[in-house]
Amino acid sequence: MDEQTIQSLSILKSSLHRRKIVESLSSSLLTPSEISKITNLRLNHVSMYLLQLKKAGLLECLNEESKKGRIYQLTDLGKKTLKLMKIDPNKK
User: Fold this and answer.
1) Which domain, by its residues, includes 57?
2) Is pLDDT above 70 for 83?
3) pLDDT above 90 for 12
4) Are 47 and 32 in contact (CB under 8 A)?
5) Where do the DSSP E strands lie in the chain?
6) What pLDDT, on the 0 to 100 scale, is given for residue 87?
7) How far apart are CA 86 and CA 50, in angstroms?
8) What pLDDT sits at residue 15?
9) In whole angstroms, what is the distance from residue 54 CA to residue 35 CA?
10) By three-state DSSP, how is residue 73 classified?
11) Of 51, 77, 79, 90, which residue has the fewest beta carbons closer than 10 angstroms?
12) In the chain, how long is the greatest CA-to-CA distance?
């Protein structure tokens, strides 16, 4: 496993809130307000976590220039990391 994937796993495993945000983006493109409603996190917290996840390369903003209605999606790294997290070797 490469270093970037290991770092991404660490970022998600160390924070339930970051994990909730990434999971919310697994099936659709969302705005911070939509993410806030889905995850039951305050909008200011969602914004903080989105910035952290973006810096880690797990997600991207599709319309960065917009002041309102920014739309986020998972990157390939975000999808890969989420898939790795959902694998439970103890389940049969």
Assistant:
1) 3-84
2) yes
3) yes
4) yes
5) 59-61, 72-74
6) 63
7) 21
8) 96
9) 15
10) strand
11) 90
12) 47
Check pLDDT > 60 for residue 91: no
In a 10 Å sphere around its CB, with 0-12 CB exposed, 13-18 middle and 19+ buried, how is residue 7 labelled?
Answer: middle
Strand partners, 61: 72
What CATH number does the domain containing 11 carry?
1.10.10.10
> Other C-beta atoms within 10 Å of 5: how many?
13
- Say if CB 61 and CB 54 are below 8 A apart: yes
- Could you report how far apart the first and last alpha carbons of the chain are, in Å? 23
Q: Please tell me the predicted confidence (pLDDT) of residue 88.
A: 52
The position carrying tokens 């806030």 is 36
Residue 74 located in a structural domain: yes
Report if residue 16 sits inside a domain.
yes
Domain count, the chain: 1
Q: For 24-80, what is each residue's pLDDT tens digit? A: 999 999 999 999 999 999 999 999 999 999 999 999 999 999 989 999 999 999 999
Structure token digits, residue 52? 């952290």
